[in-house]
Each structure stands twice: as C-alpha cells, then as structure tokens.
C-alpha cells in the first residue's frame, strides 16, 4: 500500500491512500475531472465517461488494415492457436470487431451481452447502436499470451466500389473510441497492394492524436525480391507521410507474420530482427500500462479544460432574448476566432484544441441556451489535479513498478525464439562457436600470432601501448576499443598475451561485421588457458 499527502492542507486534510495506481486514477477521475466533463457536456462532443473497467483492464492491441493484409493471421501467429470466430481468406472475411481475450473456456460473447458486462471495458460502445453491436463479439480462450494482453481484430478496410456501401455505423468513430483506450495500434499493410483507400485514409486521420501508440507492419514481405522490397518500403513511407501529419517517421516493421515457409528467404535475417523488435515492443506493454493510462488521463483533462472554455465562451456570446438562431450561426462560423481568443487569454497550446470542422458540425445540433457559463472552481480543481495530484501519482507509478517483478507478455510466438538455437542472433557475432568443442578464435589465431610477434612481446606479453598501435588500425572509436580491451584482458594485468591478443582481434572482427559486443565475455570465448582463472 502506498500513501501520499498533498502539500496544500487547505485542499486536502487527510493523506490520499491508494492500493494501486488504477485506484488513484479512478478516484482522481471521478472526483476531479468527471464533474467538469458533465457540467460542459464533454461526453456529447468527444468521448463517453470512463468507467472502472477502463482503468483495470489489461493492455489492448488494436489491429487495423485493409482486407487481406493478414490481421487475423497475425493474431493467430502470436497466439499459436485458433480463436473462436476466426476466419481467414483472401476476400474480406472478418466482418466484425473481435475482442480476443483470456477466458477459462473457449467461447463467443455477442456484442449486446458484452456491453452490459461491468467487468469488460466495452459498456460505452452501446452508443453506436445495434448495427455495430451485431458486428461486435468477444472471443474468449485460455492462452498464455492473453493473460497479459488483449487483442482487437477489426473488419478489413474496404477499397474501390466496396467502400461506397454503408456499414450502418460510423466505422471511423468506433476505431477512434478504441484508439483512445488501447495501448498499441498496429496498422498492417500488404507488400503487394499499398493503395490507401479513401476509407483507410479517413481511419488514419481519425487516429490523429494517437500517433505515439501507432506502429506500422509491412506484412507478406517474403513474397517480393529485395530490390522490390526497397521500392515498396519507400512508397509506403511516402504514402504515410501524406496522411500522418507529423514530422517524425512512424516505426515500420517489415516481415511475414505467419507460420508458413518464406517464399523468398533472401531477407530472412532482416525479418527475424524486425520480428524481435516488434515483439519487444508488444512485450513491454504490461510494464508501461499504468503510465499509459496516466498519460491518457492527462490528455483527456487538457481537452476537457479547453472544451469548458469553448462552451462557456459560446454561452457568454449568446443573447438572452432575441436573435438566438442568427447568433448561433455566426458563432459557429467564427469558431476559429473563438479558438484564437481562448488560446491567447489562457495560454493554451493550439494542439490542445479539438478539430475545428468536427466541432462546428457537432455544435449545429446543440442548444446553446443550455450551455453553462464559466465555473472557475471546476477548472481550478482540474488545474490542481494536473499540477499536484498527477505529479504525486507519477511517483507512485515508479514505486509500483519497482516492487513488481518484470512484467512481460509470455507464451505463444513470444516463447518460440526465446531459448535454443533459433533465438535471434544465436551462433552469430560474439555467439559464433557457442556449441563448438574447439575455441572459435583458434581458427584465425595463426594470423593474429604473426602480428603479435611483430609488437615486441616481453615474457610472452605485449604492453597496452603496443597493443593500441595495432588495435586503432581498425578505425573503431576509442570507446569501443576500450570495451574490447576490458573483455580481452582477462587476468587484468594491463598486458595481453598471445591468446588475449587473438581474442581482442576476434572481438574487433565481430564489431566490424556489424554485431554488438557482449557486456561480459561469454564462456565459449574464454581462451583455454584462462578458463581456470575465472572458475
């Protein structure tokens, strides 16, 4: 249990006591932010109110992409088993949102039952109506991967004539709802068809403000040659640059995420490295879940503050008696000027304001006479939360992380390359010769010995100064050569014998071939004569 006491005794007489970070977030939201949201109709404009399940649920990964980009296959690859309701094919097979979650027995929970379950974080999806709920299910199954994360599979985004057919619900709005609550958004692209349809473009734009959660996977990359893959990658980055309006480049992972043989194995090492990077990113989600929820609450609070200023400004400008309709049209048309005035008066960043055009559309259907004037006390409470409570809760996050064992996603594909010879980089670089009975450095030792005996050894050893003259020829930085020296000077006498010198040259070769140096010398690289020293 943790407790912390705010510095302002007037504000709080007793210390706030929280069992967990999620308890703290729930209490702050309900007592400080929710009153502001309700007073200014925040939920009608932006996002429904948060519930306890939103703070308690496991990290979620949202998969988005056009049809036949391998979204469902990607989930099957991670879990290493089928899940209820799974359909895979080249045509648009997944026609529903499927929340793949941990359960004691396999089964499917339909959408209408799902949104009345208080333990699931989906109750507010009820607002999207039956057309959506008939296309939303939860697939439950026992799986070690799902003990740490949940995965949301989405319908394939359509292109061509198909996208003209209405789905019956606001697809982009549903994805935006999920984007606010998930920990990672993975956009999948097929290396064979990079065209970004109008619907996909609209979806990516709806995910604006969640770029920090977005990752891109260029899937099925084993089906094209290396030269074509370079062109496809360049074309993908160009296309994304036109839609995602950020100066930073979104991280793109290249690979083939299914359990079939690679059609063109030329880039196998690249795919393995990219897969490990993506897996590490997904595995880190449970560890960073509390921090992500805290970050999302801060973003929500900043938007709620701005929303309160906008609504109260519109209320202030409205006449009390006549000409309300004309004034409403004028205010909606001049909303950009109101944004600018609020920005100047309250020193608010332009990035905190909601989308201008979307806000104008939403205001058309509102009755401005029911808007509330500015209530300073509500805003001061939220300001106090951001300035004091959040900072204290941040300390609690770090304390909680330090007291828990390292949390990582385990099982499924995450275990496949963890141990044994199929681990990424096994038998390569510093790991070369790990299973050999003979010392791997001995293969090139005659060549290294010729150099060694030209460096004036005394009593079978060369000084550090003489070793340096030879080692700097590699053109590696002194920081790297210093690390190699520490690894090679096994007896720590400040000199190198012929075996240590050969080892130093072997490590230089490892580094020049593009591999990382180990922090500690692996046992298989110890020279035979030195193995007794380290025992």
TrEMBL record:
Keywords: ATP-binding, Calcium, Cell membrane, Endosome, Membrane, Metal-binding, Nucleotide-binding, Phosphoprotein
Residue ranges constituting the EH domain according to the UniProt record: 444-532
Positions of the Dynamin-type G domain: 55-286
Location(s) in or outside the cell: Cell membrane; Endosome membrane
Major localization listed first in the record, in broad terms: membrane
Pfam families to which the protein is assigned, alphabetical: DUF5600 (PF18150), Dynamin_N (PF00350), EH (PF12763), EHD_N (PF16880)
One GO cellular component, as annotated: plasma membrane
InterPro entries the record matches: DUF5600, Dynamin_N, EF-hand-dom_pair, EF_Hand_1_Ca_BS, EF_hand_dom, EH_dom, EHD_N, G_DYNAMIN_dom
GO biological process annotation, one example: endosomal transport
Protein name in the entry: EHD3 protein
Protein's UniProt keywords contain Metal-binding: yes
Topology relative to the membrane: Peripheral membrane protein
GO MF term (any one): GTP binding
The EF-hand domain, residue ranges: 476-511
Record bears the keyword Hydrolase: no
């Amino acid at each position: 249990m943790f407790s912390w006491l705010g510095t302002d005794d007037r504000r709080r007489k007793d210390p706030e006591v929280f069992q967990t970070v999620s308890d703290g977030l729930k209490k702050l939201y309900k007592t400080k932010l929710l009153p502001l949201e309700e007073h200014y109709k925040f939920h009608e404009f932006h996002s429904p109110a948060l519930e306890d399940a939103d703070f308690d649920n496991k990290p979620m990964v949202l998969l988005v992409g056009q049809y036949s980009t391998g979204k469902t296959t990607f989930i099957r690859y991670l879990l290493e088993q089928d899940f209820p309701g799974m359909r895979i094919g080249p045509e648009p097979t997944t026609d529903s949102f499927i929340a793949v979650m941990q359960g004691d027995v396999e089964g499917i929970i339909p959408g209408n039952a799902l949104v009345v379950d208080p333990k699931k974080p989906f109750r507010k999806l009820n607002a999207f109506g039956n057309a959506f709920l008939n296309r939303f299910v939860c697939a439950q199954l026992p799986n070690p991967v799902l003990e740490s994360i949940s995965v949301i599979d989405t319908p394939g985004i359509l292109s061509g004539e198909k996208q003209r057919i209405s789905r019956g619900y606001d697809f982009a709005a549903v994805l935006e709802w999920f984007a606010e609550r998930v920990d990672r958004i993975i956009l999948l692209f097929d290396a064979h068809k990079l065209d970004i349809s109008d619907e996909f473009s609209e979806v990516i734009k709806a995910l604006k403000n969640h770029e920090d959660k977005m990752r891109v996977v260029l899937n099925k990359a084993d089906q094209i040659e290396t030269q074509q893959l370079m062109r496809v990658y360049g074309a993908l980055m160009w296309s994304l640059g036109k839609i995602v309006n950020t100066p930073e480049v979104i991280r793109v992972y290249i690979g083939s995420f299914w359990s079939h043989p690679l059609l063109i194995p030329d880039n196998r090492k690249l795919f393995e490295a990219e897969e490990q990077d993506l897996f590490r990113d997904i595995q880190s989600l449970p560890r960073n879940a509390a921090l992500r929820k805290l970050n999302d609450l801060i973003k929500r609070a900043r938007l709620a503050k701005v929303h309160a200023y906008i609504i109260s400004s519109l209320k202030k400008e409205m006449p009390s008696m006549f000409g309300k309709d004309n004034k409403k049209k004028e205010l909606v048309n001049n909303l950009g000027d109101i944004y600018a005035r609020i920005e100047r008066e309250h020193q608010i960043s332009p990035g905190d304001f909601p989308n201008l055009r979307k806000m104008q559309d939403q205001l058309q259907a509102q009755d401005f006479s029911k808007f509330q004037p500015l209530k300073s006390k509500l805003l001061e409470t939220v300001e106090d939360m951001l300035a004091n409570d959040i900072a204290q809760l941040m300390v609690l996050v770090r304390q909680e992380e330090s007291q828990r064992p390292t949390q990582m996603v385990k099982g499924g594909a995450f275990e496949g390359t963890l141990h044994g010879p199929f681990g990424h980089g096994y038998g390569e670089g510093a790991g070369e010769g790990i299973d050999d009975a003979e010392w791997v450095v001995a293969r090139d030792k005659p060549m290294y010995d010729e150099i060694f005996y030209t460096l004036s050894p005394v009593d079978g050893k060369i000084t550090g100064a003489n070793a340096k003259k030879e080692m700097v020829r590699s053109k590696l930085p002194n920081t790297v050569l210093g690390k190699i020296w520490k690894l090679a000077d096994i007896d720590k006498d400040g000199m190198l014998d012929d075996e240590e010198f050969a080892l130093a040259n072997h490590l230089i070769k490892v580094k020049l071939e593009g591999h990382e140096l180990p922090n500690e010398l692996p046992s298989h690289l110890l020279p035979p004569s030195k193995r007794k020293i380290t025992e």
